[in-house]
Amino acid sequence: MAASTSAPDPFRAPQNRPSSDHFFVWREFVWGALAGAFGEGMMHPIDTLKTRIQSQAIISGCQSQKSLMQMIRTVWTADGLRGFYRGIAPGVTGSLATGATYFGVIESTKKWVEELHPNLGGHWAHFIAGGIGDTLGSCVYVPCEVMKQRMQIQGTRKSWSSIILKENISQKSGQQMYGYYSGMFQAGHSILKQHGLKGLYAGYWSTLARDVPFAGLMVTFYEGLKDLTEYGKQRWLPISEGQLNCSVEGLILGGFAGGFSAFLTTPLDVIKTRLQVQGSTIRYDGWLDAIRRVWMMEGTKGLFKGSIPRIIWYVPASALTFMAVEFLRDHFNDGLDRDAHEMASIKIESGAPVKEVA
Questions:
Q1: Dihedral over alpha carbons 57, 58, 63, 69 (to 10 degrees)
Q2: What is the pLDDT of residues 200-258, one digit of tens each?
Q3: Is the separation of the CB atoms in 218 and 261 below 8 Å?
Q4: What structural domains does the chain harbor?
Q5: What is the pLDDT of residues 149-208, one digit of tens each?
């Protein structure tokens, strides 16, 4: 009888494992959401500069294009500090969604790919996981991005009115590009009323075309740099007691990964931005037409316009995001694992007498 009562215990422990793993995935969603919002909030002014530089061709044509320093001066003179933070509400909202799906789905997808499709393991698994996570987040992110970017190029109400008068942003029929947006909800309602869901999801496919490779590249670079760092530590610091803090490692490696990925996908970002901010003034008839016209009129320089502020934005934003995720994992995962293990132990102990009676 003693043997029969003790035998089930090893089989019960694994039964609790799926729920623990499932909880692990969901807390990655939380860490990712917090980290994404943190990174966006910290770096939003740089993103505003990038958006304004990339959308100049729509606002003022190909003439009098401003450099980064000139754009900083223009925004500060016209709108002050407020101008740099226009559109931060939809920006943070979109980053909450993509941060959650990006890091949450990455963990579960990496496990799924590596377990069921071992031939796709390693960096392929990371690339696929990043792409899937970002694709799922795009349902919320794209409408937020449309609202954010339109609010960014508008600045304050006074500066937007002066830009419309100065640059004569209108169609030949005399219809205005779009009115001033006082806030996130008013912007969403206005776009939905004027253009329907198509307006809110303007540039959706170009966003995916940019974000899927960007997300895949970033997590691939990050995991690759982590492997390289680990190899370096084992080879040159095998006996060293000092371990590089996970948060510091995330800060440094996340910055490099974000910078590399941002530069490589800049042309896709230029096309996406122009499609999303053009509004009723139809300058580009779809993604392929936008690529063709930018290439013909502006060349390689046009496709990589805004690459410097994009890199300046993504290096610290990615660094802060990965640092925040590693910090949250480092400081909360152990405690959550301990609680889950204790709960599993209580269930096993409370279940043992019942089995014995049976």
A1: -60
A2: 998 788 888 888 899 889 988 998 898 888 888 777 776 555 556 778 888 899 999 99
A3: yes
A4: 21-357 (1.50.40.10)
A5: 889 888 777 777 766 655 554 444 444 567 788 889 999 999 998 888 988 998 788 888
Shortest CA distance to 207 belongs to which of 283, 259, 126, 148?
148
Partners of 183 in the beta sheet?
A: none
Q: Measured at the alpha carbon of residue 168, what is the angle toward residues 164 and 172, in degrees to the nearest 5?
A: 125
Nearest to 109 by CA among 95, 120, 99: 120
Q: How far, CA to CA in Å, does 287 sit from each of 139, 194, 275, 301, 331?
A: 19, 21, 8, 18, 44
Q: From CA 184, how far away is CA 181, in angstroms rounded?
A: 8
Over residues 286-343, the pLDDT tens digits come to: 788 888 888 988 888 888 988 888 898 889 888 988 888 888 877 776 655 555 555 5
Report the residue count for the chain.
358
Rounded to 5°, the CA angle 62-75-149 comes to 70
Helix (H, G, I), strand (E, B) or coil at 170: strand
Identify the three-state secondary structure at position 129: helix
CB-based contact 280:177 (threshold 8 Å)? yes
Whether residue 200 contacts residue 188, with contact meaning beta carbons closer than 8 Å, is answered with yes
Q: Count Cα atoms within 13 angstroms, Cβ side, for 79.
A: 26
In whole angstroms, give the CA distance from residue 304 to residue 294.
10
Residue with tokens 């100049």: 56
147 burial type by CB count under 10 A (0-12 exposed, 13-18 middle, 19+ buried): buried
pLDDT tens per residue across span 328-354: 877 776 655 555 555 555 545 555 444
Look at residues 191, 325, 215, 339 and name the one whose alpha carbon lies nearest to residue 265. Answer: 215
SS (H, E, C) 55-124: CHHHHHCCCCCCCHHHHHHHHHHHHCHHHHCCCHHHHHHHHHHHHHHHHHHHHHHHHHHHHHCHHHCCHH
